[in-house]
Specification:
The protein is of the alpha/beta class. The protein has one domain: Metal-dependent hydrolases (TIM Barrel). The protein is about 35% helix and about 10% strand.
Length: about 350
């Protein structure tokens, strides 16, 4: 929990990893390219005093993760978002079994979301069924630009992807986290395009689609989709570090999100260990839309910050219990579908 100026904030870090990017785990040059690209993001967007040395960054381990999140980082609960990258690493980049074991050891602090690849066909569906039962999955993380054989990505509305989404409904997996953000070398930029989100969000109203990185650099496309689709949410991983290096750019990002999709559908994420949550939380609580931009964007309220920093994510996961004194009404509220023939909803920032 974070406290400042008499206010208490329940913190849910909605996107964390326990990765192994060391040379010993790299299958090929692409494994090195991937972790090096991560490290460039880390160096270029972090305060100087928060930058790690390269060797620590490639593998930091469980003890440091627990300390950075729950001792130093104010986090009350965190969600693992699995990253496989089996074409680049000998074992999964995100160390899925170690992450699951750690979450099982600390269920009060950690939730584990697994991953699947719909290009694995029927065999992958059967594996998803086994994983869902063994891991008690509430969510999955998808990487539509991941390589598999000769394929360098897939679309959420592909035939096999739809089969897997339908299986998620049958298995009670409601939270579909999808990386739709900046390109990470050597993955292809176009494979992260957000247009396929529109199709599956419309067709699968029983699922919640949490679009990690809010579609950057396609923020406008994401906002136009998410304001129409009640079951589309935005995760701030990669977007929020701009609060340090380019605060006016971050003001534009958060201002657009609040205007279009509203305060109940935005989720805080550090993307640990790309960045540590401590300084992100401190800066976000202190952040305000610059005065000369407030003609276009409304000031951010303390209640909005509380929802974004944890209450919205907690509303999506049964494993996260918010103390009664820290709750707010309607935090994380799901959108209401408009009946056929009724007026379409306006952006969150517009009143009629």
């Amino acid at each position: 929990m974070y406290q400042k100026d008499g206010e208490k904030y329940f913190i849910v870090d909605g996107h964390i990893h326990l990765w192994d990017g060391r040379e010993s785990n790299q299958r090929n040059i692409h494994g090195k390219q991937f972790i090096d690209c991560f490290y460039d993001y880390h160096k270029n967007l972090s305060p100087a005093e928060e930058v790690w040395d390269y060797d620590t960054y490639t593998y930091y381990g469980e003890d440091r993760l627990m300390r950075d999140l729950f001792v130093d980082g104010y986090v009350d609960h965190a969600i693992f978002q699995a990253t496989l990258l089996t074409e680049f690493y000998n074992t999964s980049f995100g160390q899925t079994e170690a992450s699951f074991a750690l979450a099982s050891k600390h269920p009060d602090k950690l939730t584990y979301n697994h991953a699947y690849d719909p290009r694995h066909g029927e065999a992958g569906l059967e594996r998803l069924r086994r994983d869902a039962e063994r891991m008690n999955l509430q969510g999955v993380k998808l990487y539509t630009a991941e390589w598999y054989g000769d394929s360098r990505g897939y679309k959420l509305d592909d035939h096999w992807s739809r089969r897997y989404l339908e299986e998620c409904i049958d298995l009670g997996i409601k939270n579909i986290h999808v990386h739709k953000g900046p390109t990470i070398r050597p993955l292809d930029r176009d494979s992260f395009d957000v247009s396929d989100v529109d199709k599956v969000a419309t067709d699968y109203l029983d699922l919640r689609f949490v679009i990690e990185h809010v579609g950057l650099p396609r923020l406008e496309d994401f906002c136009w989709i998410a304001t129409q689709e009640s079951n589309v949410y935005g995760g701030l991983a990669v977007a929020i570090p701009f609060i340090h290096t380019r605060p006016r750019y971050f003001a534009q990002i958060i201002g657009e999100l609040l205007y279009w999709i509203g305060e109940d559908k935005i989720l805080f994420s550090s993307d640990y260990a790309l960045w540590t949550p401590k300084w992100l939380i401190e800066k976000f609580v202190d952040f305000q839309i610059p005065e000369d931009m407030q003609g276009e964007y409304a000031p951010i309220t303390t209640e909005q910050k509380k929802k974004i920093l944890g209450l919205n994510a907690a509303a999506l996961y049964d494993s996260i219990d918010v103390p009664a004194e820290l709750r707010l009404p309607n935090a994380g509220a799901e959108g209401v579908e408009v009946a056929a023939g009724a007026a379409q909803p306006q952006p969150a920032g517009v009143t009629s």
